[in-house]
Amino acid sequence: MATSLDGKIIGKFMETENAMGVLTDYVWTNNFFKPDAFMCGTKTVTEMNTEQPVLNPDEKDVPEGDFIAKGAKAPFLVVPDSAGKVGWKNNYFETPYIQKSDVIEILSEKASPQYRNYLRRLNISYIIAGKDHVDVVPAAKALKQKFGINTLGVLGGATINWSFVQAGIVDELSICLVAAGDGANKSLTLFEKAPQIVENSPVEFELKSIDRLSRNGLWLKYTPKAARNEERPYSGQFDLGKKNVDYAKFFTGTSYLNQLSNQGATVLNVTFEPGSRNDWHIHHGGNQILLVTDGFGWYQEEGKEPRFLRSGDVVEIPPEVKQLEWRI
């Protein structure tokens, strides 16, 4: 999520120069987690999509259960739409912040058969989760079981955010903080309680990392205290290799080393676990080329500002330069 300093997720602060810079970073920070799908609430989607559903009042019969559209494939955009109100032009959706994605609607049992038939005509997948409102826990299970969605990026709105946090199924909270205040009294904040949530308890988070973004912004990552501690699978371009035991004294945290070639130039694939770093060191052999193939991190030379790195970046490192690399 992207928020103002006073926690707003929408408002005039979005028009500031600082917000424009951070919103550019917002795209790649979302993709950092390599989600199989993004989720946006009904209000968020209707603000970007003005289509109205075209219903046939005579379509009173509809097959029971969920509907998986023919040819449905990742990436997906998941939309909780309890009563069935969102209109669509196609069975996919895209914005400057979301790549072209097949739509999956999450409905409650109160969504009409006319609306369900409308989605079927457009070949839009839907699942039923909840009686009068969307229940996020069975919804998340169905998304995993029926669509193979293991990592879901929840992009708001405020009530959807809080529903997931209250249900205890959030593994990590990512906030792109815009260096701007809004001050509006009625603008939505990062979390808002849905009316159907009766028991509402505070949720504590633990700070995982802080990184600089464009235009004075910050990228804050938190984990809920009750979050599951599960490792993400390795997804790099090359084989992970073995634990970097021989050079462990030059590293903080765990890294892995795979020698790809030693014919002429030596080519090494070095993989850093999150939060690990290659401590200050000097390479005496000759020029080095650092090519980032996956993930995000930082590179710094002594006496200079650190440089943010993402997949595809290249750094040419002269010999005898004291340097430091670390992964977010």
Give a topology summary.
Blueprint: E1 2-3, H1 17-31, E2 37-39, H2 42-48, E3 76-80, E4 92-93, E5 101-107, H3 113-121, E6 125-128, H4 136-147, E7 152-154, H5 158-167, E8 173-177, E9 205-212, E10 218-224, E11 242-243, E12 251-252, E13 255-261, E14 267-272, E15 277-282, E16 288-291, E17 296-301, E18 307-310, E19 314-317, E20 322-327
Parallel strand pairs: 1-8, 2-3, 2-7, 3-5, 5-6
Antiparallel strand pairs: 4-5, 8-10, 9-10, 11-13, 12-15, 13-14, 15-20, 16-19, 17-18, 17-20
Mean pLDDT: 91
Summarize the main sheet: 6 strands, mixed
Domain count: the total is: 2
Low-confidence stretches: none
Instruction: Give the strand content.
Output: 25-35%
Please give the count of helices.
Answer: 5
Protein name: RibD C-terminal domain containing protein
GO biological process, one term: riboflavin biosynthetic process
Pfam family, one: RibD_C
InterPro entries: DHFR-like_dom_sf, HNL-like_cupin, RibDG_C, RmlC-like_jellyroll, RmlC_Cupin_sf
Task: Describe it.
- The chain is α/β, with parallel strands linked by helices.
- The protein has 2 domains: 2-224, Dihydrofolate Reductase, subunit A; 242-327, Jelly Rolls.
- It is built from 5 helices and 20 strands.
- The model has no long low-confidence stretch (mean pLDDT 91).
- The protein is elongated, with a radius of gyration of 23 Å.
- Strands 2, 3, 4, 5, 6 and 7 form a 6-stranded mixed beta sheet that branches. A 5-stranded antiparallel beta sheet has the order 12-15-20-17-18, with no helix packed on it.
